[in-house]
Design a protein that fits this description.
- By secondary structure, the protein is α+β, with helices and mostly antiparallel strands.
- The protein has two domains: 257 residues, Amidase signature (AS) enzymes (Alpha-Beta Complex), CATH 3.90.1300; 153 residues, no CATH class.
- Helix content is 38%, strand content 12%.
- It is built from 15 helices and 13 strands.
- An eight-stranded mixed sheet has the order 4-6-5-12-13-11-7-10. Strands 1-3-2 form a three-stranded mixed sheet, with helices on both faces.
- Helix 5 links the parallel strand 2 and strand 3.
- Helix 6 packs parallel to helix 7 and helix 11 crosses helix 13.
- The longest helix has 21 residues.
- The radius of gyration is 21 Å and the shape is globular.
- It starts with a helix and ends with a strand.
């Protein structure tokens, strides 16, 4: 296998090659650090590369492999590299949150999700670029590298997990961690032709700091295969004492279900009732490419014996309260207005009273009940992930904030409802547009328990 093929090999296969002695952690870490050095100046996917720490850990793990008892079972991703989004704390590593004002901020602890990834055997390559404070669906932080789409460098890889998506799509990391407060994993997966999974509320802990936006954000994964995404979800999941909400670990595991999927989906006796839609009310319809993606997927599922029905929950009334929580996310950063980008300065200037925030949370909870009730009649919902393909770098930078906000709302409209409801959501790739960008991937929304 040549180095390029290896760089795009699934994380599960890489882990198996290490267990079989055909690869070492040093081989993989060296491969990805070389690719980062060669390619990332064009992509801007990493804001911090932890080369020294990654090399040291790769050497230690390689030595442990050579001396281990062959009956000893290794963690599932022993020696496999991973990238971590720069909103997530890694002990001893800078965490700038997409802000030049925080370039000297070094995390004193690992977030719980990082602890679980380390326990699974992963080696961290570095921290990936994010939009400032994770507040925008494109990754163009002021005075920090702009993340670019590997399919076409003139276009965005999305945001706020844009650096994670660009790194995986370009073969700079086999998989990456992300987070999603309004589409921030699914949108970058859409833009870069990847599998993007937003976990259900309570599936992955936000310990030790906890959640500060009333449950709308969730950790997630970016990968090139469904199996890799499922396996990462397995190792990232789990309750930490004190979590405000949590889900029991699934049985069977996510990976086991993913591996059974090819057989199960073709069994008529296990047909699913699936709703689908190409229009998000009250926002509007998806563009032609994104509509085609949904309709073709629905047709294929119907041909497999599943019951497809055009329908969609009522999302009316969600936009305004969701914006209140969005503004609150900027306010809780504690950064002064002068340290922020113009858009975030504007969001901060619109700051709401505490009573307004609580009213917004109440409104979102009421809408969430309506959305979840929809799934009493359906097993899944198929929607466009975003309503039109990726935008060019800087496309909306010169707009007044009110105009930029409206364009953002229209683009990402299918995503925030399921941050509100807390349901899991999966974006899947499906071909390319005529412009050579990833096709608007269909987004699957499932029942809350998964």
């Amino acid at each position: 296998m040549n180095s390029s093929d290896l760089a795009f090999t699934s994380a599960l296969t890489q882990a198996e090659l290490i267990r079989q002695g055909e690869l070492t952690p040093i081989d993989l870490v060296g491969l990805y650090l070389d690719r980062i050095q060669q390619l990332d100046s064009q992509l801007g996917s990493f804001v911090t590369v932890t080369a020294e720490q990654a090399w040291a850990e790769a050497k230690t793990k390689t030595e442990q492999l050579a001396s281990r008892n062959q009956t000893t079972q290794l963690p599932p991703f022993w020696g496999v590299p991973i990238a971590i989004k720069d909103l997530t704390a890694v002990q001893g590593v800078r965490c700038a949150f997409g802000s030049p004002a925080l370039l000297d901020h070094v995390s004193a602890h690992d977030d719980a999700v990082v602890t679980r990834l380390k326990q699974a055997g992963f080696i961290i390559l570095g921290k990936t670029s994010v939009s400032e404070l994770g507040s925008l669906p494109y990754t163009e932080p002021t005075h920090l590298p702009t993340a670019r789409n590997p399919w076409n460098l003139d276009y965005t890889p999305g945001g706020s997990s844009g650096g994670s998506a660009a790194a995986v799509a370009a073969g700079l990391s086999p998989v990456a961690q992300g987070s999603d407060g309004g589409g921030s994993v699914r949108g970058p997966a859409f833009c870069c032709g990847l599998v993007g999974m937003k976990s259900a509320r309570g599936r992955i802990s936000f310990a030790p700091l906890g959640d500060h936006q009333s449950g709308i954000a969730a950790h997630g994964v970016l990968a090139r295969t469904v199996a890799d995404a499922a396996a990462l979800l397995d190792v990232m999941s789990g309750y930490v004492p004190g979590d405000p909400y949590w889900l029991p670990n699934p049985e069977p595991s996510f990976l086991a279900v993913a591996q059974q999927g090819a057989n199960r989906i073709n069994r008529i006796d296990q047909s699913l009732r699936i709703a689908y839609a190409t229009e998000i009310l009250p926002i509007g319809a998806a563009d032609a490419d994104c509509q085609q993606c949904v309709l073709e997927t629905a047709s294929q599922l119907a041909n497999l014996g599943h019951h497809l029905e055009p329908n969609c929950p009522d999302f009316s009334g969600l936009v305004e309260p969701f914006i209140v929580l969005w503004r609150a996310g900027v306010a809780t950063s504690g950064l002064p207005s002068e340290a922020l980008s113009p858009f975030n300065q504007w969001l901060l200037s619109q700051q709401d009273l505490s009573g307004d925030y609580l009213k917004a949370v109440w409104a979102i909870q009421m809408i969430a009940r309506r959305i979840v009730a929809f799934f009493e009649h359906y097993d899944a919902l198929l929607l466009p992930t975003y309503l039109h393909p990726p935008i060019r770098i800087g496309a909306w930078n010169g707009l007044p904030p009110t105009d930029a906000l409206q364009r953002i709302i229209h683009w990402i409209a299918p995503c925030p409802p399921f941050n509100a409801s807390g349901q899991p959501a999966l974006a899947l790739p499906r071909g390319l547009t005529a412009a050579g960008l990833p096709m608007g991937s269909p987004s699957w929304l499932g029942r809350p328990c998964r």
